[in-house]
User: What shape does this take?
Amino acid sequence: MSEESIIATQFEDIERQDKSTDQHRPVRLGSARGNWFQRVGWRHLLGIIALAFAIFPVLFVVSAAFNPLGTLSSSTLIPKSFSLDNFTKLFQTTSFWRWFYNSMVISLLSAGLSMFISACAAFAFSRYRFRGRRSGMLSILLVQMFPQTLAIVAIYLIFVEVTDLYPGIGFNTSWGLILLFLGGALGVNTWLMKGFFDTIPKDLDESAKVDGATHAQIYFGIILPLVTPILAITGLLSFIATISEFILSSVFLTQDQAKTAAVGLYGLIADSQQRNNNFGIFAAGALIVAIPTVALFQFLQRYIVGGITAGAVKG
Assistant: This one.
């Protein structure tokens, strides 16, 4: 046996010994890349801080809603006793159920119509090539750079004329506010949906056309079932934004029977003299209004991550 082969055999024996030693050597946490807190623990700490920061106002509102005294000064994070007096006063002394009904009707119709119209616009921008397509998309993006409240004076003057000519869609009407919300949500939803439509192969459209399918059959029968995630996320975002909207609603809804829950509940604490006494009633109403949003979020949560990430891939 040559000297080189002997040396190679010795190296192989050493490597086998090292591997067997590593397999039986106990693993110590934090010994490879620093301790546990430096690698992972600080993330848990930040998560706990963010959770505490987010859950504190929720716990305070829940505590105030069940506080028997019903005042802001007596509300604590952990109530000393529980009572339903605030809910009883809310139902008996205010038009809460009417406000809640108005909020649900406006939010559901606005979310549904915005979702459908945005899907139609996004399908056209994604699938068809026509003159003004690029400038139209840029115009939508440019308009969305300015908040809707910036044009509130102009919108108010328009509604003054609309109320005189068509009272059914003017001030203190649900349809007037729905039309107002549709104008502010179409641009964002169209851009978000257009990115999702771009991820769907156009071969599906062409195959359906070869088989004799019409444009409506392709859109409703093939495309819409494939874009269910983005429909869910845009509908959810529109619902949340509408049911919690206050500024525009407070300007265009002044009659008690036409108010939404956000406007009506704010009226309970708008007066500085009654703010302390009515805070428990306000918290009880806010707790009830939050139930539909949480329920809808739980129902659609499986679509949220897929809808946002897929819509952001292409634009």
